[in-house]
């Protein structure tokens, strides 16, 4: 193999740049030419493909976003569009593709694999919702961002004896809510994986007040409903002087944590190692602190991400 390419796709996540750097530097160290594809699958189909040089990677490990840019490009679900992408890869003499992205991007890599083009997925999304890995690149940074925001909100909640409902990201997964909620001592964490009882939440706030804790913090994952909608429900069960906040895209940006940088470096290096061994059609992950690679088709078709819902029980045991 002489030439590989790398792209980032779907919602950006901090640490994607570190992963592109790792794939590129590991490839270059092994004598490969590494090409960067701009704007995800959109750029692939349009042929926006450029060779990366060592200097292109300088300083990237510490930066947020993705310097290769990303895109939501639903057209890539069509077979004719996928085949156009493969044509572009072949035209550039590229023999394997590393896709850094979330569950949607993995489906794109799966389709390329099914068409016979060697593709490897590296998990990059703040949602942590990809099967075949315990952690995705960007999750730790997003959790730390949400944690800092929740700490700040707790300060003002305590000062004004208020109840805050804070919506964190996670399209269909409660992982960010669980980790940031536990880290901030939330009074309740509402996640899409489990039902909730609004009366029970109202009772927690009342009980807090009866025992001298006059402020409360409720963390809700966006996959359940908006903070505003939840506030409306809660308001029907009492006057808690509540405020609703949506953290939004601040969770997606910023300098990656050291953990995300190291994870990205491990994944990128491992992807190149596998390609050099002649392996492909794989989804890379980390499980119990060991790097793993699984068949991408089997991973996506037969497995689901399992949010560690026991973390909610932990929070319920530890809260006020
Ligand atoms: N079923 C699919 N088949 C082919 N490509 C897909 C599929 N689903 C998503 N993609 C591609 O992956 C891109 C990113 O997916 P998306 O769900 O937006 O983000 P993420 O990868 O972060 O989950 C989509 O815009 C599309 O180009
Ligand atoms: O930035 P957009 O396109 O509005 O998408 C928001 C979504 O992207 C995310 O931030 C990341 O999800 P993906 O990795 O699937 O792109 C979700 O948490 C959120 O629901
Ligand atoms: Mg996704």
UniProtKB/TrEMBL annotation:
Residues making up the signal peptide according to the UniProt record: none
One Gene Ontology term, aspect cellular component: 6-phosphofructokinase complex
Record: residues binding Mg(2+): 103
PROSITE patterns the UniProt entry points to: PHOSPHOFRUCTOKINASE
Listed GO MF terms: 6-phosphofructokinase activity; AMP binding; ATP binding; fructose-6-phosphate binding; identical protein binding; metal ion binding; monosaccharide binding
Cofactor(s) it depends on: Mg(2+)
UniProt keyword list: Allosteric enzyme, ATP-binding, Cytoplasm, Glycolysis, Kinase, Magnesium, Metal-binding, Nucleotide-binding, Transferase
Domain Phosphofructokinase: 3-275
Role description: Catalyzes the phosphorylation of D-fructose 6-phosphate to fructose 1,6-bisphosphate by ATP, the first committing step of glycolysis.
PANTHER family: ATP-DEPENDENT 6-PHOSPHOFRUCTOKINASE, PHOSPHOFRUCTOKINASE
Protein name: ATP-dependent 6-phosphofructokinase
Organism: Ligilactobacillus ceti DSM 22408
Gene responsible for this protein: pfkA
